Amino acid sequence: MEKEDLISNFKKVQAKIKKAAALANRDPQEIKLLAVSKNHYAEAVEILNEAGVSYFGENRVQELEEKNEKLIEKGIDIDWHFIGHLQRNKVKYLMRMENCQMIQSIDSLRLAKEVNKRAKKNERIIPVLVEVNMAKDENKFGIMPEEVKDFLKQIKEFENLKIEGLMTILPYLDDSQKLRSYFKQMKKIYDDVCENLMPLNELSMGMTNDYQIAIEEGATIVRVGRAIFGEREY
Ligand SMILES: *Cc1c(COP(=O)(O)O)cnc(C)c1O
After folding, report:
1. For the chain, which end, N or C, has fewer CB atoms within 10 Å of the first or last residue's CB respectively?
2. How much of the chain exceeds pLDDT 90, in percent?
3. For residue 234, what pLDDT is reported?
């Protein structure tokens, strides 16, 4: 994609975020745009970073490392968020990357333990989100909605994790009412945790298809790929 198109896509998404925030009487400043650059070149990340995108997301460790290396060589230091299913044997590579700023996809106790252990080895405290399988989709990872509080209680004591909030990936649905209802349920769980268990700062929900609805329902991070980068080619 051409540089002008990337930048104009970014500006369009930014404008839509503002509009959705206004509709919900929210301050647009409290909503972070995570540009999901998977399957796209490091050059596109460089262009968008220069244009003012502050956060980028990747879902595969190797791809993330390769892109990051290219950018670091050019002196470009990106704030990366890891958003994919993370295999435990890959955690060590991620924790070595100083500019991997958040893991949004903590989806099991075993993974949480491994991340905690590797973070400790690297003498760092890593911000994390717990992934919730809100739609109880068999093809997706994540903690079941009714188990979120117990799960948080278990990982709360892990000293090298900083639990920042919750994340969810919904299935592709045409039914915006249905999507809205899942987002509402996520917000309910989030508020319940904040009131009764621990303070949280981030609710990561909404992708190209549904980020405006997610913002109306309380998202603080939206993860947008195709609306910025165009369709992914595999
Ligand atoms: C790919 C991906 C996205 C972005 O999806 P788009 O439909 O391209 O906006 C968001 N979150 C996760 C976890 C993803 O894997």
Report:
1. C
2. 97
3. 64
